[in-house]
Amino acid sequence: MADGILIKAATVLTFPQGFTGEADIKVKGGLIQKIGRGLRAESYEVLDASGCIVAPGLVEMHAHLREPGMEYKEDVGSGSRAAACGGYSAVFCMPNTDPSIDNSSVAEYVFDRGEDEGLCMVLPHGAVTQGRQGQALAPMGEMGTCRAHVKGFSDDGSPVADSEIMRRAMEYARTFDALIISHSEEPSLSADGQMNEGYYSTFLGLRGIPPESERIGVFRDICLAEKTGAHLHLAHLSTAGSVELVRDAKKRGLPVTCEVATHHFSLDDSSLMGYDTNLKMNPPLRSKADVAALLEALADGTIDVIATDHAPHAPHEKETEFDRAEFGCVGLETALGLVITRLVGEGVLTMEDAISKMTVAPARLMKMERWGYLPAVEEGLPANLVVFDPEQVWTVDPTAFKSRSRNTPYAGWSLRGKVKHTIFRGALVVKDGQLTSGRDAVLSQVKNRGGNGQKQSQLNR
């Protein structure tokens, strides 16, 4: 058995320094032991990274892993495998499960499931309201102090429609420095909508969701953030109007951040001309003008984070009539390729800025230092790394996904930028794009640290 890992001849991308040149990296005992040139292999497993970039492991701030309750779509195990192959070392999962992640028992169960899998950190967001019903606040403080240390709260999938409840949630969250993650939407405008309201919805005869639905929700939430002083993070922004509201809020110094999902900057509503249900999203794919506004906001820093909104669904939930199909697509295994192809390749972002929005920004917002997670490639730090070839061209093949679901709009797309290796807690969990048995090394480290306590097996309240 190898004593460690030696990454040879990689171009190092770390933060805040940016690219620091070509180097070899020694990994042992879960840590980056040495960075330099001409390092000897000894008894280490050697990875030839010529032409590749080594960067901090990616951090996904917005994914749906479906466990507990909807494991037929995805579970923590399959989601972790997809994440590791996509270059992620940490995934924050949304609480729209069954039961909802609205108490410490369910939060700890999901967290422990991630530790059991040993492929990436799985960190749950908690629900804002009990059962995500929008009527009474969930015990956010309890979730914040449990073993999962929940710091993000959202009713994602649904807006918190009652403004008084949202205000109280923000006031509550501020007392323990938590983040309110808003699915901003005015449901009276978006009810029964299937796609963006505009030319194409009229042409296709599908009920539209007007951009104003999101913009009104964003405006309300920014007003409440200004009132309470709470940190508001706006999920999956999709419209030019929303972007402008965030830009103004930031100019005024308000505690507001936001994210964009990969499908919202890479696709627009004209793509739905074939009634492909894999293109049915919530928020919906918007107009070309909205996409242009999102790209501008990425470039000027208005948008802080690039997320996936990974939303797996079973075939029978997507291969049906458009108005009956579920919203969303999977994204963990295509995100890096889309970012490099559509953002870096087209000059919207530099490679440094793009990877920063997938590592440093989400790690900072989620205060991941509390886990000892620092998104940098430096000696002495935990070895959570992704090695990727920025020039490798590959074709998206859903049958090769590690996710349990295959609902992607990118089947057959040619993308540039491919994950080669993923190292998590010093273990090689993905080698040459394929999962390894490296998880055993991670689990051994967890066991040697005394484990993480007894898993909660009782989910029902």
What structural keywords apply?
15 helices, single chain, 22% strand, TIM Barrel
Please write out the topology.
Elements: E1 5-14, E2 18-28, E3 31-36, E4 45-48, E5 53-56, E6 58-63, H1 76-85, E7 88-93, H2 104-117, E8 121-124, H3 140-145, E9 152-153, H4 163-175, E10 179-182, H5 187-190, E11 195-196, H6 199-204, E12 208-209, H7 211-228, E13 231-234, H8 240-251, E14 256-261, H9 262-266, H10 288-300, E15 305-307, H11 315-318, H12 335-344, H13 351-356, H14 360-365, E16 385-395, E17 414-424, E18 427-431, E19 434-435, H15 439-448
Parallel strand pairs: 1-4, 1-5, 6-7, 7-8, 9-10, 10-13, 11-12, 13-14, 14-15
Antiparallel strand pairs: 1-2, 2-3, 5-16, 16-17, 17-18, 18-19
Helix pairs in contact: 4-7, 7-8, 8-10
Structure, explained:
The chain is α/β, with parallel strands linked by helices and 461 residues long. It has a domain at 57-371: Alpha-Beta Barrel (TIM Barrel), CATH 3.20.20.140. Helices cover 30% and strands 22% of the residues. The chain contains 15 helices and 19 strands. Strands 1, 2, 3, 4, 5, 16, 17, 18 and 19 form a nine-stranded mixed beta sheet that branches. Strands 9-10-13-14-15 form a five-stranded parallel beta sheet. It has a three-stranded parallel beta sheet with strand order 6-7-8. α4 links the parallel β9 (152-153) and β10. The longest helix is centred in the middle third of the chain and has 18 residues, at 211-228. The chain is globular and about 65 Å long.
